[in-house]
Design brief:
The chain is an alpha+beta fold. The protein has 2 domains: 26-102, Histidine-containing Protein, Chain: A (2-Layer Sandwich); 117-269, Mannitol-specific EII, Chain A (3-Layer(aba) Sandwich), CATH 3.40.930. The protein is built from 10 helices and 12 strands. The protein has helices at 3-6, 30-43, 67-71, 88-102, 117-121, 144-155, 161-173, 229-241, 245-253, 257-269; strands at residues 7-8, 18-24, 48-53, 58-61, 78-84, 104-105, 131-138, 177-179, 181-183, 186-189, 195-206, 215-224. The strands form 2 sheets. Strands 1, 7, 8, 9, 10, 11 and 12 form a 7-stranded mixed β-sheet that branches. The chain starts with a helix and ends with a helix. 42% of the residues are buried. Pfam families: PTS-HPr, PTS_EIIA_2. Residues 16-106 form the HPr domain. Keywords: Phosphoprotein, Sugar transport, Transferase, Transport. GO terms for molecular function: protein kinase activator activity; transferase activity. Residues 124-267 form the PTS EIIA type-2 domain.
């Protein structure tokens, strides 16, 4: 089976019927203006609706009047509103209007694929160096080897065999599953001068031969053999932040590839 039939660069992926609105806080003064309207709207839906401050690792039931106070939104915080239930998609559609009026929504005016559009529109979340971003959605059950092969094709499509071999040799030393559901195959690669991050998401679990468990999100981190200081800083930020439970969960449940790229950019730009 060809790699193109295994992967498709499309969005979104259904995952536990959760829908999200991802946004940044520019002006914390807006919190007092939206607290009551958001609470009233959240009560109108049957779905469970929560607000998550990813930066501060806080979460609250949005239907409660004190929700905005509980999550303590500050300038620069990355947040999500999540909805789970039979009317979750409708709930997010309605709540978007309020969020868009007072905060900086990630998905607006950006296409659905990983691209530089998001970097240009939201420079405040840019990592300390240029990163080549790649993304694909698994369309069938993948083995670990097929996933590594797909990541190599995303990063270095001209001649992926050498990169595939580098990934395999790294896995032979120890599994790169870093937390439940997340794998981080990482190598230094002679044929690149840039830092590349490639992501494959899979609804079906991938057996990663790890005691930690199976994988739903594989994030390949490929550095040049002589990385710049900025490359190392971005890679270190990403690696350490993947150990946070809240980040782990958000990476696996975020449906939109634009939102997923924003989250990866954010956790590559700073330590949470």
């Amino acid at each position: 089976m060809s790699i193109k039939s295994l992967l498709s660069i499309v969005e979104p992926r259904p995952f536990m019927n959760e829908y999200q609105i991802t946004f940044f806080v520019d002006d914390p003064a807006a919190n007092s203006h939206v607290a009551q309207p958001l609470s009233r709207l959240a009560k109108k839906f049957k779905s469970t609706i929560r607000i998550i401050n990813i930066t501060q690792n806080r979460t609250a039931d949005l239907s409660k009047s004190v929700a905005m106070l509980q999550v303590g939104l500050l300038r620069g915080d990355l947040c999500q509103i999540t909805a789970v239930g039979i009317d979750a998609e409708l709930a997010c559609f309605v709540l978007k209007d309020v969020i868009a009026e007072h905060y900086d929504m990630v998905g607006s005016q950006v296409n659905h694929e990983f691209s530089k559009d998001l970097i240009q529109r939201m420079p405040q979340i840019c990592p300390p160096c240029d990163i080549k971003w790649h993304h694909a959605k698994a369309q069938t059950q993948l083995t670990k080897f097929e996933c590594l092969k797909g990541l190599a094709h995303l990063v270095y499509p001209e001649d992926p065999d050498e990169l595939i071999l580098a990934f395999i040799k790294r896995e032979e030393r120890s599994s790169t599953c870093v937390s439940p559901g997340i794998a981080l195959p990482h190598v230094m690669f002679e044929s690149t001068q840039d830092l590349s991050i490639a992501v494959i998401v899979s609804d079906d679990p991938i057996d990663w031969a790890s005691r930690i468990g199976e994988v739903h999100v594989a994030i390949a981190l490929v550095l040049p053999t002589k990385p710049q200081r900025e490359h190392i800083v971005a890679a270190t930020n990403l690696t350490r932040n993947l150990l946070h439970d809240q980040v782990n969960e958000r990476l696996q449940k975020t449906r939109s590839s634009v939102d997923l790229q924003a989250l990866l950019m954010y956790i590559s730009s700073r330590l949470l």
